[in-house]
Amino acid sequence: MAPRGRKRKAEATVVATSEKREELENGREQVEEAVVVIEHCTSRVYGRNAAALSQALRLEAPELPVKVNPCKPRRGSFEVTLLRPDGSSAELWTGIKKGPPRKLKFPEPQEVVEELKKYLS
């Protein structure tokens, strides 16, 4: 028979995870200015693509801050989101459900810049 302590710890972890998600959602609402957030998995390939993309976004819109992985990223994720001061967000790119091959997960920087221009206009 398995000890009961393990099950309780698992339940506590689920509660803690849901509390963290609520904190993240609440944190997004308190943005003072528009911010571009790039969330990417921590593997090397994802990092290189995120760096190229953040550089392209900074060149195109230097007044917008670009944050890369402000919190722990999800496994296999590559997303670009525009957070607005009013609390809403616009997804510029998501590569979570794309692939295989892996290269489909990553956008061309120009594609994301064009999408950003649509939302800023």
Automatic annotation (TrEMBL):
<dbReference type="GO" id="GO:0005794">
    <property type="term" value="C:Golgi apparatus"/>
</dbReference>
<feature type="coiled-coil region">
    <location>
        <begin position="7"/>
        <end position="34"/>
    </location>
</feature>
<protein>
    <recommendedName>
        <fullName>Selenoprotein H</fullName>
    </recommendedName>
</protein>
<keyword id="KW-0712">Selenocysteine</keyword>
<dbReference type="Pfam" id="PF10262">
    <property type="entry name" value="Rdx"/>
</dbReference>
<dbReference type="InterPro" id="IPR011893">
    <property type="entry name" value="Selenoprotein_Rdx-typ"/>
</dbReference>
<keyword id="KW-0007">Acetylation</keyword>
<keyword id="KW-0676">Redox-active center</keyword>
<comment type="function">
    <text>May be involved in a redox-related process.</text>
</comment>
<dbReference type="InterPro" id="IPR052674">
    <property type="entry name" value="SelWTH-like"/>
</dbReference>
<comment type="similarity">
    <text>Belongs to the SelWTH family.</text>
</comment>
<keyword id="KW-0175">Coiled coil</keyword>
<dbReference type="InterPro" id="IPR036249">
    <property type="entry name" value="Thioredoxin-like_sf"/>
</dbReference>
